Amino acid sequence: LAVCDAQEALTYQQLQQRANQLARFLQQQGVQPETRVAIALPRSTQQVVAALAVLKTGAAYLPLDTNYPTARIQFLLDDSQAKLVLTQGQLGADQARPTTQIIDLRDPKTQNQLDQLPSHPLELTYRPRQLAYLIYTSGSTGQPKGIEVEHAALANLIQWHRRQYQLAPQDRATIVASPAFDASVWEVWPYLAAGASLHIPEEAIRQAPQQLVPWLAEQKITLCFLPTPLAE
Predict the structure, then answer these.
(1) DSSP code of 136?
(2) Pick from 149, 188, 172, 229: nearest CA to 45
(3) Which of 34, 45, 37 minimizes the C-alpha distance to 6?
């Protein structure tokens, strides 16, 4: 098992195959190394597939929280100069700038195109200084600021995290943070790199401690990172 939510569970083989197909689709749309690709998807298996697919093309992903106000999403897309946005109907045309292409992954035509593409691995060389993702500050002290993170920094985080917490394939971890919060990077890549499994609670469970605690026990979670107020 690689990742699961309330709707589906993906093995590592399925995760790789779907990400490879989506990566090839993105390349057909003109995505190249260091192209900025926004991901407007809720916490889900599809969100993980999308982020992995973007990295497989050599592009950089920009995670968006679909609950953000329209004005904030517009600012992030404009400031990042995202070429396209991957969504599942959560993003309207009024939220994207005119030069940004919106791709609805639930559209039957798009799904059919994806199904026709090869699912074997792509051949691509990554450079340490190549951009991996962008994350924006909250903007609580002014305008949100975009932070560009390179592959070298992400690789360092993954290696430190795996060593610090002694991650193993038997570990079962969670994705609780908003995709647009930098903690989501902490929650995903070290565990996939270790061969562990990721478990995504539904929104109602995530926001209710009295439901989250039994869910963690039921899923046999071994490692979980929570915002301090929720943990307390």
Answers:
(1) E
(2) 188
(3) 45
- For the four alpha carbons of 63, 166, 170 and 12, in that order, the dihedral sign comes to positive
- Tokens at residue 10, please? 């993906």
Q: How far apart are CA 185 and CA 202, in angstroms?
A: 19
Per-residue pLDDT tens listing for the chain (232 residues): 999 999 999 999 999 999 999 999 999 999 999 899 999 999 999 999 999 999 999 999 999 998 888 888 889 999 999 999 999 876 655 555 566 889 999 999 999 999 999 999 998 888 999 999 999 987 777 788 999 999 999 999 999 999 999 999 999 999 999 888 888 999 999 999 999 999 999 999 998 999 999 999 999 999 999 888 888 8
Which one, of 77, 22, 78, 83, lies nearest residue 49 by Cα? 22
pTM value surpassing 0.90: yes
User: What does the chain come to in residues?
Assistant: 232
